[in-house]
Amino acid sequence: MPFPSSDLEKWAAQYACSLLGHALQRHGASPELQKQIRQLEGHLSLGRKLLRLGNSADALESAKRAVHLSDVVLRFCITVSHLNRALYFACDNVLWAGKSGLAPRVDQEKWAQRSFRYYLFSLIMNLSRDAYEIRLLMEQESSACSRRLKGSGGGVPGGSETGGLGGPGTPGGGLPQLALKLRLQVLLLARVLRGHPPLLLDVVRNACDLFIPLDKLGLWRCGPGIVGLCGLVSSILSILTLIYPWLRLKP
């Protein structure tokens, strides 16, 4: 989920504070110091929400562009992700208005839950897109390996490097064949991710981000330490895509 560089810096600082606060609590730091860290985290969060004013419109524009993608799966995943991101930013704007005193009657807990739900849906779409791209690349790599093997006169038992290992009824079938097939698939996945750093970075970043709404919505309690660490890692990876634009997954 792309954000402006200033927002990413505050995002990284906020989750660094969350991680630091958790570490201080575990090591018995003074309550006053813990309170100061929590206040700093809150100020950074409010500052991030201020910087996001107008991001809903940007997300809607991105969704309009994604509608024209030729691949139907990518079109669906990216468009739905951007639409959920627009709703996430809109909820964030309402939260900012409530916390800043412009709309004191806003039910912040309710809007925070809505915000994290849209955030979660957006991440699910992002990871679905990543999984789809990985599958396509694995199929391409498997076909290329098969062509190379045929050209060199080699082969793998079962007729395919990754999939045609025979069924349970073939000689030597069963669990050993299944284990070999699984091992080949893992090796193929590793080769694909190693050869496509933007895709690898996107998978890791989305996976790290996923822990945040899961924890906030109570679907999977990870604790502030894990949330802070995942948020910090995700922020650093996002900053890397700004420093090195070729690491950004396209489209």
Automatic annotation (TrEMBL):
Q: Where is the composition biased (Gly residues)?
A: 151-168
Q: Does the keyword Transmembrane apply?
A: yes
Q: Which Gene Ontology cellular component terms are annotated?
A: peroxisomal membrane
**Which residue ranges run through the membrane?**
226-247
Provide the alphabetized UniProt keywords.
Answer: Membrane, Peroxisome, Peroxisome biogenesis, Transmembrane, Transmembrane helix
For this entry, list what GO says about its biological process.
peroxisome fission
- From the Swiss-Prot or TrEMBL record, give the protein name: Peroxisomal biosis factor 11 beta
For the keyword Transmembrane helix, the answer is yes
First-listed, main subcellular location of the protein, grouped into a coarse class? membrane
Q: Which organism is it from?
A: Macaca fascicularis
Annotated localization: Peroxisome membrane
Spans annotated as Disordered: 149-168
